[in-house]
Amino acid sequence: MSSLQVAKALNNNVIIGMHPEHDEVVVIGKGIGFNRKNGDLIPLDSVEKLFILKSHEEQEQYKRLLPKLDEKLIEVIGEVLHHVQLQAKKPLNEHILIALTDHIAFSINRQKQGITIHNPFLYETREIYPQEYKMAEQAVSLIKDKMGVDLGEDEIGFVALHIYSAMTNQHISEVRKDSRLIADMVQVVETTLEYRIPLQSLDYSRLLTHLRFAIERVRRGEIVQEIYRLDKLLNEEYPEMYMLAWKLTKIMEKRLRKSVYPAEVSYLTMHLQRLSQRKEQGEQR
């Protein structure tokens, strides 16, 4: 049976230990450090909730953060990550422990001081990352139950981006940039069409989803099969929407600093043409 040897208990919920596979690690789990002495062995299969920091750099960052944290918060974050990991069904990037802990600790302090920060991409986040948003709702609800602090809906959006970042190994700054890019492209569409797309509509949801997956394809460098006859037909039939789609792909190229395959213009043109028809139908009523 594999065991973890305690090198030092930092508090009731955090220990430094020697792991059979990862050498020295920081281990976070509810009550894992309670009454532990140096040299104690903890059977790994007896630990219900475990989050391990293997990177030495991440370990040092967390140790520096630890003295500023309420032990209750450490316990709650551990529980949040346990639930996220179970639902994600894959390993999370371990940086989420530091990033999310620091973010939530700061949010709780702000809340206590009566300072609120508006999340300009809340609706987009809920539509683009529904699974992560649901996990974030559960996390904020757990924090409210355990710590008596209601972080509010805006924070759900911020926490959802941290969860998405950890699930995709994409840095949180890149995730935020993508959300901003999508919001900016939607604004270009609405300005060009002179049409405010209803937020709760299926068309709005489809557009956000399409833009999200287009950005992901560009980031991965995924080849999108070009259909020459379709491209030619769309350019001839819907020249205004084709030009708008072309403009959006150029915005993507500039912001992502990656090439966008021409086929993306065709697929985007079809989405934009549907929106244009919706606008016309609305004006005819």
Automatic annotation (TrEMBL):
Keywords: Repeat. It comes from the Bacteria. SMART domains: CAT_RBD. PROSITE patterns: PRD_2. GO terms for biological process: regulation of DNA-templated transcription. GO terms for molecular function: RNA binding. Residues 68-173, 174-282 form the PRD domain. Transmembrane segments: none annotated. PANTHER family: CRYPTIC BETA-GLUCOSIDE BGL OPERON ANTITERMINATOR, PROTEIN GLCT. NCBIfam families: antiterm_GlcT (NF047357). This is PtsGHI operon antiterminator.
